[in-house]
Amino acid sequence: MRIAIINGHWYHYEMFGHILEYCKEKYIDVDIFSNTDNNMGWIDLYNQFFPTIKWYPISSFIPDKYPYTVLTSDNDKLYNPLWEYKTRVIVIEHLSTRVLNLPAYKTLQTRRFIKRTPPSSNTSWVSPLWTYAPMDKYQNLTVTCIGGTSPKKQSDLTQYFSNFSSIQFNIINRKATFAESLPNIKLYKGLNAVDMLTIAAKSHYILLLPMYNTNHKDLSMSASVPLSYTVGTPILMSQSFKDAYGYKGILSFSESPQELSFPSEKIMKDFIDGRKDLIQQRNTVFNSSFFWL
Predict the structure, then answer these.
(1) 3-state SS class at 231
(2) How far is the C-alpha of 23 from the C-alpha of 7, rounded, in Å?
(3) CA distances (Å), 147 to each of 190, 192, 225, 283, in order?
(4) Would you say 180 and 190 are in contact if contact means Cβ atoms under 8 Å apart?
(5) In the chain, which segments carry CATH 3.40.50.720?
(6) Judging by DSSP bridges, how do beta strands 88-93 and 68-71 pair with one another?
(7) Distance between first and last Cα of the chain
(8) Across-strand partners of 251?
């Protein structure tokens, strides 16, 4: 069987990996029709891990050629035209508050949205993670922050970590900024996908701060969460965020400064067990989405 993935955005390339890994394991061929502007190296990354996929311009997409089409974002303007054809469209929903009223074959959320009415069921959410190559960690204790939940000033970090000065912090953001110039803060702007995942994989923790994007608590998925599971690096977040996600292996930081140490064997085991659970959830839901299995 051959399916299609379609993406009209100039972003959300990170949404392909979990579909491609599943299809590789199930011997499903994949054609990707996507805008490639500003892909930040994601295409080269996927070609490395999934060499059998084929890329095409969106203009060459023929919907009724495929038994299934996965639309990777529910606000993609390419959505409406697909209903003129017989193809089964599986739409991935990114926001708890954005519920489609169109007759999709299936809608899948990027996480379980507990506050949605009704809440996401166990058969309707798939976390967009896959299995990246394991890497040796940095010698120095390293924490990496990615995207809109990154710190902007020293006090964002010292309020949680009493040993701030002994931790190396990496901030990866297309428009990375930091108020002070400090020896243990390194900014990465416009980093390509391979370098971003390499830094994340070699870090000891991924940090998700609560103050700069509160929507990621209940309404949407922070890309840092599936990325951390993808690369096998434990994620740190506030207790309220941890409770909202409910994933096994997530770590929470205290509201008062505490000393951060290297992750223990138990922490790593619990986190990798959590990844196994999320991958099993993905496979179960995808198995039921592609009815031929």
Answers:
(1) helix
(2) 17
(3) 11, 13, 11, 27
(4) no
(5) 2-109
(6) parallel
(7) 11
(8) 236
**CATH of range 2-109; options 3.40.50.720, 3.40.225.10, 1.10.287.3610, 3.20.20.150:** 3.40.50.720
Tens-digit pLDDT profile for residues 127-147: 999 999 999 999 999 999 998
203-218 pLDDT per residue, tens: 999 999 987 778 888 8
Question: CA-CA distance, 27 to 221, in Å (whole number)?
Answer: 29
| Threshold 0.85, pTM exceeds | yes
List, in sequence order, the alpha helices (H) in the chain.
17-25, 42-49, 155-158, 193-202, 215-218, 224-231, 239-245, 265-289
User: CA 116 to CA 180: how far, in whole Å?
Assistant: 40
Rounded distance between C-alpha atoms, residue 62 and residue 235, angstroms = 40
| Buried/exposed 238-273: b ≥16 CB within 10 Å, e otherwise | beebbebbebebbbebeeeeeebeebeeebbebbbe
Q: How far apart are CA 24 and CA 6, in angstroms?
A: 17
User: In this structure, are residues 28 and 290 in contact, taking their beta carbons and an 8 Å threshold?
Assistant: yes
The arrangement of secondary structure in 142-274, i.e. its CATH architecture, is 3-Layer(aba) Sandwich (3.40)
Whole-angstrom distance, CA of residue 198 vs CA of residue 181: 24
* Helices 265-289/17-25 angle, 10° precision: 70
Residues 6+ apart with CB under 8 A from 50: 20, 21, 24, 30
